[in-house]
Every structure is written in structure tokens, then in C-alpha cells.
Amino acid sequence: MLRTILFTAVLAIAFFVVDEYYSASWLHPKWKILLGFFLSVSFLTHRLVTTGLQGDRERFVPMYMASTVARLILGLAFIGFFLFQQVDQRRAFVFNFLVLYICYTGFEIWALTRNLRRDS
After folding, report:
1. What is the mean predicted confidence (pLDDT) over 84-104?
2. In angstroms, rounded to a whole number, what is the distance separating the alpha carbons of residues 61 and 49?
3. How far apart are the C-alpha atoms of 50 and 54, rounded to whole Å?
4. C-alpha 4 chain-centroid distance
5. Does residue 19 contact residue 92 with C-beta atoms inside 8 Å?
């Protein structure tokens, strides 16, 4: 979980620098909410995968699949809520969401495969 927090901190620093010093039209003003959402979903994913790795190893695959489905459903609900609330700059918001979704998914797959190699 510490790696996820550090990854989020690096992204937050990068977004802050871009927001403060450049006028990037692709960066949505609600980037802090997006990072908070992905940090919380990553925490949920981490807890489900950790639960799957403890004790009976046969529970790992269902827990990993549950975390993937939970991330997808929570992401769709999150996007749907903000689009329903008439958020400004919809394209930038959806673009930022998709980029962060891909970044966090890739990071978590990398972290998971790293842990699985060590545990096998």
C-alpha cells in the first residue's frame, strides 16, 4: 500500500506543477478529487487482494476478479455521478479519468506481478 501512496504523491506533485505553472487545457480543475477516488479504490483493491493471498491460496483468483469488477463498477458510478451533476469541461474530466484509470491499473498489475513472483 505504501507504493500506491507514493505513486499517488508523485502524480499529485506532477498535476500540481502543471496546474500551477502551465495553462494546460487537458487538466481538469477537479484533479484532486480524481486522485482521491483512485487512491481509495486502490486501497479497496489492495485489501481484497491481500485477503485473497492470506490462508487458502485458491481464494486469490476470485478476490482479484472481485477487485477488478469493483474497480470497474465504482469507476462507472463515479463518472456517471459527475456527468449527471453537469461538471464543467466534461471531455477533460473524462480524459483525466481514463488516463488515471489506465495508470493505476498498470501500476497495480505491475505491483501484483512483482509480489506474485516473490511468493511463488
Report:
1. 89
2. 9
3. 6
4. 9
5. no
